């Protein structure tokens, strides 16, 4: 499968420094060792260079005329969590460098910069990337041997998802895959399972929206003989079937509210009772859930248990829609053309430039699944060696319906004080969560951004269950 990219080891080194003389000295020292260099003078220029050049290493001053090195560090980690960042700081500000390393910087250089020390740190960073690349390659080969699906695409947003999968695979934490229909959530779940230590165990999937509410509990937890009319013998449920493997709960947002408490207990305690039974069944498994719904909104609307949401979203991963990665459309289209031409024993087909343009311009509301269906149909109907726009049968984009009013999701039950308290609590929860995300989990920085005291923030985090 495609990996979350370890960036090319011969990619340029990004220098972020506002002093022209120092920036020039650093560039000459690096270029003398054969490194390509990209320069930026402040945080905005650095962020633009990050996206334009995908550097292998970032070397940034912490003090910049616009923004600062901490902003560069966060942007670099957003672009690629494994991107090596080395910060530069004045001798008297070593505590700033230590703070940067706590936020993910690999190392620091004290000014005035010693060129030999600089080159030593750069070589260390490149060696680290080489080892990481080799580890990823070995891990991918092992995952392929364990049946990992082939995930195709080169978009940065997709690579971030794959990097998150790599990190999550080594843990037993519950993963919540969020994304629109057709983005391939089960494919990613299978990839996660294949990369995990549980890859030799079973991968068991169940679509919570496809089974009637009255039957879903029996499917998940099984039942004993005589539990209800027609239960002629014991049935093992999906939780037990996934023993020592992975249980994939697809469309978890459609889980009936009455069943959510039992799911929560099974996730927290890894034990349950079959329907009609008294004996406790213990299971050793890893749960991956997926949804195309906004579970936070469902929680606010009292349609989904908040405690279950937090238990499921230990490691949330959002899969980007296809319209947000148009550069992957030609790659996917060629892949599907090759697959279906082979399956249908047809000669290799090619897309005309106008057909390719039409594919890239289409919004793909059904995402990869819609593209796959489109190409399969085109290959079946093709009468020649090339595919034209008319062969794709792309429907014109539908007009976007007006967005639903957020007020419609409010629970207005009870008196005015009760409703006001609920609304204020939800606003505080969302604002604090956003501040913590922006601060990278640093409570002190989040408190500063919220303009409240550190202890006050800690108390609110406890009270709001964050």
How would you portray this structure in words?
This protein is α/β, with parallel strands linked by helices and 466 residues long. The chain folds into four domains: 13-135, Rossmann fold, CATH 3.40.50.2300; 156-318, P-loop containing nucleotide triphosphate hydrolases (Rossmann fold, 3-Layer(aba) Sandwich), CATH 3.40.50; 322-392, Helicase, Ruva Protein, domain 3 (Orthogonal Bundle), CATH 1.10.8; 412-463, Arc Repressor Mutant, subunit A (Orthogonal Bundle). It is 48% helix and 13% strand. The protein is built from 19 helices and 14 strands. It has helices at 20-31, 43-53, 69-79, 94-102, 115-145, 156-169, 185-195, 213-221, 238-241, 257-269, 295-300, 306-312, 328-343, 353-361, 367-381, 389-392, 416-438, 443-450, 454-463, and strands at residues 13-16, 37-40, 57-61, 84-90, 107-111, 175-178, 203-207, 246-250, 271-273, 280-282, 286-291, 315-318, 350-351, 386-387. A five-stranded parallel sheet has the order 2-1-3-4-5, sandwiched between helices. Strands 7-8-11-6-12 form a five-stranded parallel sheet. Helix 4 (94-102) links the parallel strand 4 (84-90) and strand 5. Helix 2 (43-53) runs parallel beside helix 3 and helix 13 (328-343) crosses helix 15 (367-381). The chain starts with 12 loop residues before the first strand and ends with a helix. The relative contact order is 0.08.
């Amino acid at each position: 499968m495609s990996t979350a990219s370890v960036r090319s080891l011969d990619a340029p080194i990004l220098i972020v420094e506002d002093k022209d003389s120092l920036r020039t000295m650093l560039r000459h020292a690096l270029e003398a060792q054969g490194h390509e260099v990209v320069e930026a003078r402040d945080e905005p220029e650095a962020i633009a260079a990050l996206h334009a050049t995908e550097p292998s290493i970032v070397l940034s001053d912490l003090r910049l005329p616009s923004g600062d090195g901490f902003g560069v560090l966060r942007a670099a980690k957003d672009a690629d969590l494994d991107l090596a960042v080395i910060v530069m700081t004045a001798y008297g500000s070593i505590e700033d460098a230590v703070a940067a390393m706590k936020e993910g910087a690999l190392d620091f250089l004290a000014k005035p910069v010693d060129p030999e020390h600089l080159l030593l740190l750069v070589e260390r960073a490149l060696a680290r990337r080489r080892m990481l690349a080799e580890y990823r390659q070995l891990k991918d080969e092992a995952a392929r041997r364990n049946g990992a699906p082939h995930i195709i695409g080169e978009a940065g947003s997709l690579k971030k998802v794959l990097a998150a999968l790599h990190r999550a695979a080594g843990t037993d934490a519950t993963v919540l895959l969020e994304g629109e229909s057709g983005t391939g959530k089960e494919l990613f779940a299978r990839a996660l399972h294949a990369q995990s230590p549980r890859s030799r165990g079973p991968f068991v999937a169940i679509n919570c929206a496809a089974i009637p509410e009255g039957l879903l509990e029996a499917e998940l937890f099984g039942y004993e003989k005589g539990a209800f009319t027609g239960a002629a013998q014991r049935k093992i449920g999906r939780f037990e079937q996934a023993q020592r493997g992975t249980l994939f709960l697809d469309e978890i947002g459609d889980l009936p509210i009455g069943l959510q408490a039992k799911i929560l207990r099974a996730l927290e305690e890894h034990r349950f009772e079959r329907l009609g039974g008294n004996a406790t069944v213990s299971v050793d498994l890893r749960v991956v859930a997926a949804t195309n719904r906004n579970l936070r909104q469902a929680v606010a609307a009292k349609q989904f248990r908040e405690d279950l949401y937090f238990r499921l979203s230990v490691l949330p991963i959002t899969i980007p829609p296809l319209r947000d990665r148009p550069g992957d459309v030609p790659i996917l289209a060629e892949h599907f053309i090759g697959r279906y031409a082979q399956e249908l024993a047809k000669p290799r087909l090619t897309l005309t430039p106008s057909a390719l343009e039409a594919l890239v311009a289409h919004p793909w509301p059904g995402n990869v699944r819609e593209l796959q269906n489109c190409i399969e149909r085109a290959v079946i109907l093709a009468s020649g060696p090339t595919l034209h726009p008319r062969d794709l049968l792309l429907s014109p984009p539908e007009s976007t319906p007006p967005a639903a009013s957020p007020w419609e999701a409010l629970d207005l039950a009870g008196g005015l004080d009760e409703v006001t308290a609920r609304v204020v609590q939800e606003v505080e929860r969302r604002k604090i969560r956003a501040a913590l995300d922006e601060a990278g989990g640093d409570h002190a920085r989040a408190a500063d951004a919220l303009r409240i005291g550190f202890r006050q923030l800690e108390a609110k985090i406890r009270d709001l269950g964050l």
